[in-house]
Queue: 3 jobs
Job 1
Amino acid sequence: MLHSISHKVAQFTESVIREMTRQALLHNAVNLSQGFPDFPAPAEIKQAACDAINADINQYAVTWGAKRFRDAIAAKTKWHLGFDVDPDREVVVTCGSTEAMIATMLALVNPGEEVIVFEPYYENYGPDAILTEATIRYVSLLAEGHAEDGNGNFWTFDPDELRAAFNDKTRAIILTNPHNPTGKVFTRAELQLIADLCIEFDVLAFTDEIYEHIWYPDTARDVRHISLATLDGMRERTVSINSLSKTYSVTGWRVGYAIAPPVLTDAIRKVHDFLTVGAAAPLQDAGAFALSLPQSYYDSLQQTYLKKRDFLLGVLNEAGFKCYKPDGAYYIMTDISGFGFADDVAFTKHLISEVGVAVVPGSSFYRQSDGGKQQVRFTYCKRAETLQAAAEKLQKLK
Ligand SMILES: Cc1ncc(COP(=O)(O)O)c(C=O)c1O
């Protein structure tokens, strides 16, 4: 008994993604597994953090977020996502979007209720559901029209399968948009379908929009990020989750936020207060500065990642991977069946120890199906030199 652990915790393992970073360090491999930039955060944002510390913003902020930061969140959400937010009643500042999601789940979902998640999915939602004692209903994302040259394919889902996932136990749908790991950016028609079902079944939506600025215009298709909360009837039933991590390349700052109607926000604030008390006060102050950056900052972020995406796609295609070209976020899901390995874990081990490149095995993004058994995920949020080093090592696969 002394060393027994809780039933809930016994149901999940440590993060596979973060374990891959440890393996990369162990084998001195180029780390294209975990999604954190290996280049510096923007100088002016770092300066704002130093200024905040020097100005003695070093004590607890208001538990649900410093006023200046909440005001900046409301202003940016208005101009960028296109809806009004009351900074005093509708915002909770959290320790990353990670805390925003678990606090939201604990605050709004009862044990035994169901939450819909598109699979493959970002692995945190699994433990989030276990800790909440909720059941996940998975809806498959399928790589349709997967072109061998890595061009022009995109992930879709079956509307009937989505409808079948909704029932009277459904409390919420989690929507990651742009999506990790597939890079899918949901179209307006798909979002409308999701919205219609949420309204019909009186279900909440928890949107993870941390890649809101990282998507790639396409000449053949209308790719753009649309926030689910902006669709008719959705604002009052959506918790929009976001973070500084990816947009400002500060994943280690652990500053995120949730935006929701006042009644939902009150509940999330309570959980947040007792989970963490609050996010780092000086970094919230720097966050207010970051959120005030002009459109040109986001344009240049998009251009930077577009170049990195196209570079890595070229490298991977040449090395023999079939690539699912991403429309957004900064990952490439690949099909490894051409290499003849038993599964994604065996391939990943080989790639880390023999080739010297760390990736994430596809199966860590799947629970319901074994769709990930011949897939691995690469990230390209890395310096050009890092991607070049990976390219050289991947030659060994040929
Ligand atoms: C979809 C998704 N949500 C959340 C996170 C974690 O974000 P944060 O640093 O804001 O906790 C990640 C990180 O990779 C992610 O890909």
Job 2
Amino acid sequence: MQQALYHPEHGYYSSGRASIGRRGDYFTSVSIGPLFGQLLAAQFAQMWERLDQIDNFVIVEQGAHHGDFARDVLGSARKGWPEFFAALCYRIVEPFPILQDRQSQTLAEYEGKIEWRDSIDALEPFTGVHFSNELLDAMPVHLICSRGPVAYATAGSQWNEKFVGWRNDQFAFVEQPIVDPALRAFITKLPSRPAGYKTEVNLAALDWIDNLATKLERGYALAIDYGHSRAEFYAHHRTNGTLQCRAQHRLFTSPFHEIGHADISAHVDWSSLAERAEAHSLHVGGFTDQHHFITGIISELAAPLEDADAKTKRALQTLLHPEILGRAFQVLALAKDVAASTAADSSFKQKNTLTTKRPVSGLPHHSPASNLRGMNALCLVFELVRLRRARGRFRLLLRH
Ligand SMILES: C[S@@+](CC[C@H](N)C(=O)[O-])C[C@H]1O[C@@H](n2cnc3c(N)ncnc32)[C@H](O)[C@@H]1O
């Protein structure tokens, strides 16, 4: 996966071949249109207020692709929150020169406002927010396969790792005992599973949170992606894991198909990520689905979206609808050195379901998913927002 996506010359992302959007390989919330960035700008402005409107509020974006999200955020901040715009500086963590070039073209009008770093390591300690949309699912994972609940000496020996080999003139998976010490340590936490059960472990995401924790002095990390709590991720029925390969909006079963021309991704194990964050004093400020997260933001907008044009309303419906992006995506908010209550929000009221000792359910159960089926989702959203406002109990992520 590392080579297929990030080989300096042939990798799907590093070569600049990755294409996102209608005419590309897959959609993301960013590719739906500027609304996603505009809504997140409102969230960032509120974080800035919660951090006492500091002069040097840093937004770090990682996985910025062609810079569209940064453009949407900066444009919206400049128009809607000029003081916030003046106080912010935007840093993009981008390891690939070809993507840095494209981002600087997209963001030409914001020259001076943006700086680039090629890794989290190269980033100065900052106060502000780290943001990522679909970064974690694009990190290379270890594929593992159960040998069954046999009477082996250690839990570690119940799993093999799947490596890529070469057989009959083509790539093929080869199973071998796990030798990587970090992977061996991780699998001791996994439940016993029948022989042949396949799954993934994303150690890169855990390293990422280790690094980020050393750079975030005060503020937030907001990660949006598709994933599951650990219990759901490693559930009995998920016998083939979550690895997905796609190109031109089509799914492939094999990652050896169209290598370097197709996307490969895996769902995020949110529980492991949240636990690792908490070990670094990054506390879980909230965890919910995109539907609840965005309706929370909308409810606080000074100029709500009832009067938006048809295109914006369609984009909103795509972002919110439970059967499109609303429930498939989750939002994990981490906070450091910010009073716990300030990271509370009604959209996040079931916060920290990920790292409590209770059985992990992961997400709010009050998702109006079933109500939305066959109904005009947008009307319902506006109605929901109106009702919650009227009751005065719908507050944004960072409001007391
Ligand atoms: C699925 S795309 C998402 C792009 C964009 N955030 C969006 O939502 O449309 C994943 C992006 O993460 C980038 N990426 C992967 N690993 C990265 C890393 N370590 N640092 C920065 N970007 C990375 C890839 O190059 C790619 O642009």
Job 3
Amino acid sequence: MAAVAVALLVVGSATPHRARALTSVTRFDTNDPRLIAKGEYLAKAGDCAGCHTAPPGGPSGKETLHPAAPFAGGLPMGSPFGTIWSSNITPDPDAGIGRYSYDDFERAVREGVAPGNRRLYPAMPYPSFAKINDDDLHALYAYFMHGVAPVRQPAPRTHLPFPFNQRWAMMFWRAAFAPDDVFVPHATRSAQWNRGAYLVQSLGHCGACHTPRGPAYEERGYDEHARLYLTGGTNDHWFAPNLTGDPGAGLGRFSEQEIASFLKQGHGGGLVTFGSMVQVVEDSTQYLSDDDLRAIAHYLKSLPPAAPNGHFDGQSQAAVRTVRALDTGNAELPGAGLYQGLCARCHKADGMGEPLKYPRLAGNPAVLAAHVDSLVRLLVEGGEAPHTQSGPEAKKMPSFAGKLTDTEMARVLTFVRNAWGNDAAPVTSREVAQVRHSLGK
Ligand code: HEC
Ligand code: HEC
Ligand code: HEC
């Protein structure tokens, strides 16, 4: 926290942001059904509903009758500074954004400034949304004014402790850290590459989870020119893996088709979506057109390997040894016995899982990742694959919280990170204890 306060003070002296020229009266028909339909699609690409809809049971989690109306806000978002509640963005004039002009909408979405100069916290991904182009922003505005049902219920107010309740200070944060230019296509790249880059960097805000954050909670880059862009980040104890071409813990060994199908169905290349990515697939990427998904995958595959971690060699001696050890019951490798008893039923003795049911753990980049928070959190809480329109029935992974001690969790995870040709750093019981402690489980 202190680091952030210092950062805010330091950047307070930075040059003020160049003012965006106020768009002269923009003329577009907000009632145009085609524009509204386009806005609905883009709202999916931006996952506006994912953050602006309360969880089942309403903001308190106890309101049995609360319908969790889409876009009515009230989703609590954990940040290192306290809980931030998402706003009601339905067109209700009092509880929502019904009084917003187009310029108000543009400033809120691109710059994080709500009417009355209320600075928004970057839990709203405006650093990415700054890149949304004008045509798309018109369509989004038309949709939110005329395609969404107004909901009169106001969202809970956010109360962060001092100094983070000083919303005006976000002005300096934004000036120092957030880009403010609309996406500019690269002339030397293909239309497909540019479409993918645009979706990933702007509406998709993939970097909000997949790019590591700095001391002031800023993303360490917003496009492929930054060294750490999309090299992996931890939010809320879910580690979002490296999406660059690293053949170990990145996407280097996966094809465009496999990545596109992962985003559409939650299954691709033997991987199954888990953790906070499940909601991204359920609320957002499953609805994207095949062309857009291919464009996203094409862009990701263009990112050169960065921040390498872990290795996989399915043909290695070690790979053969693991399978033989598990087969013969000669489980002398620490953790192998636990794996055989508790995990092999679904993930199989050869670590290859079962297509469209259980993920492979052999050569799985999330298993080889530099940070093991996600692996521990998944073991503790269990998980469920995403429910999608076109994907298979969602299977569950059980929780092992009551069954395994910290040491046993560390052993079985160390085993899966080093079996079948996987090669990544061991997991210590201390790491497990730390994650469990902060999860309170
Ligand atoms: C990752 C979560 C997240 C996503 C995705 C997201 N928002 Fe938000 N948004 C928030 C949060 C949290 C706030 C409240 C921030 C605050 O109180 O400072 C907010 C605030 C807003 C506001 C300001 C409303 C007001 O007057 O208080 C608007 C407008 C808005 N979002 C529109 C959108 C649109 C349009 C999209 C999709 C293109 C979107 N948001 C996607 C989290 C999100
Ligand atoms: C709310 C945070 C969040 C956002 C936003 C997000 N991701 Fe993820 N993503 C994760 C987490 C956590 C994982 C690890 C779990 C898994 O593999 O499903 C993941 C995994 C992935 C994987 C599989 C990587 C691997 O090595 O297993 C791909 C591909 C991916 N995300 C692409 C994207 C794209 C493209 C976007 C933007 C459209 C995006 N993600 C936005 C959190 C997020
Ligand atoms: C009943 C079947 C089942 C058992 C038993 C099981 N898992 Fe899973 N596992 C799954 C499913 C289904 C997923 C996908 C979860 C999700 O999408 O949230 C998964 C996901 C995973 C992942 C994330 C990989 C990815 O790409 O999704 C890891 C790591 C993992 N399991 C490890 C283990 C370990 C270690 C054990 C034993 C201690 C175990 N699992 C036992 C079904 C199982």
